[in-house]
Amino acid sequence: MQTIHARRARLPQGWAEDLRLTVADGRISALTTGVPPQEGDTRTDVLLPSLGNLHSHSFQRAMAGMTEVRAAGKDSFWTWRELMYRFMDHITPEQYEAIAALVFMEMQEAGYASVGEFHYVHHQPGGAHFDSLSELSERVFAAASQTGIGLTHLPVLYTYGGAGKQALNGGQQRFGNSVAEFAQLVSRARDLAARDLPQDARVGIAPHSLRATCPEDLAEVLQIQHGQPVHIHISEQPKEVADISAWLGARPVDWLLDNAPVDGRWCLIHATHMTASETARMAKSGAAAGLCPITEANLGDGPFNGVEYLQNGGAFGIGSDSNVRISLVEELRTLEYSQRLRDLARNVLVPGEGSVGETLYLGAAHGGAQALGRDGGRIETGALADLVAIDSEAAALCALAPEQLLDGLCFAAGDDTVTDVWSGGRHMVQHGRHIHRDQIVSGYKSAIKALMESL
Hints:
By secondary structure, the protein is α/β, with parallel strands linked by helices. The chain has one domain (51-377): Metal-dependent hydrolases (TIM Barrel, Alpha-Beta Barrel). 36% of the residues lie in helices and 21% in strands. It is built from 14 helices and 17 strands. The strands form three sheets. It has an eight-stranded mixed beta sheet, covered by helices on one side. Helix 2 (93-109) packs across helix 14, helix 3 (135-147) runs parallel beside helix 4 (179-196) and helix 12 packs across helix 13 (405-411). The longest helix is centred in the middle third of the chain and has 18 residues, at 179-196. It is globular and about 65 Å long. The protein starts with a strand and ends with a helix.
């Protein structure tokens, strides 16, 4: 058991002063407001529910900055993808683990308590299987254990190379599994997670996209969902929308909502290119939109239909996707700024009137917890202790009243305002640094040196 005292905290009902919080078995077991700190308390300034990073491809962190040179012709998501495949073919399991550990540590230092690892690299270059089908999932688990992050592991079903059951090719060979092989992988991963990871860990499933599976396989793989999260890429690129429409006779979001049991356990990643009707239908389905604004900007995907989505009561969370830049506050502000640039307006993503920062931060906390299958995203008795403390005396925040702090955090502050993070009660970031930072960074640098020598 541990106790935390916060000078100020954001509870579901609003701001509270002098909060004393008890954590037991990874959950908030008691809350008292209006009390002074006691001996043995971990003292914090401002305590908030932490966000979950609902969409990550951790290995892509190692290639950040390598694809920002314009090639002949028009660069696009699809040209970036080919470069990513070539880079990925050189990564060993040991390097994969070291990269994931760095990524998870950076997420926690940025204020995330948990992550949804959308994991699609399963095999050796060329597609040959490792001795253990779950080898690379095990590497992700090792990284999660080292960092203490709350993990929702999302093994990816990736059977085809494109819409219409095209064959896998090139780098895609490392992703491929039949539904039967995938079921074995998921079963193995669930057994290992139950044995080796904290009780807040989850193993869901992730059909990669409609273009990487087919209707029959999607229906079959949902039989192993077992109440766990289901994540899927959807409508990220105009070409994807055109290809799926030509093949299945409907736009991707419409097709999915018409043909799959989409509900609050689903997370639809990106959903960038939707009609007004698709936007409203998706919002009312209960699924969370998995938004990755920095990556979506980096890849030129386009902005999400945020205004219409929130007007229809849609849930959302944020993710760092390609991990080209890991920053919780920059994801939130980029989400809002994408709407402002498109609409030539200010303070866009708040239905009616009110604080944009509160709408973004608290909305993403709720939606991220939902998408990751974590009973968190709020500070109340019984919830998972996914918590972040920030320093309101930092230069970016010290002029603000309590009701302005989330606006300041989202639009003025950097990640350096984060002082502490608890992931399912595990106090992994203290005084702004991960407690295993030096070891993790050293391991990453050794791994990346060997990787670069192999390219």
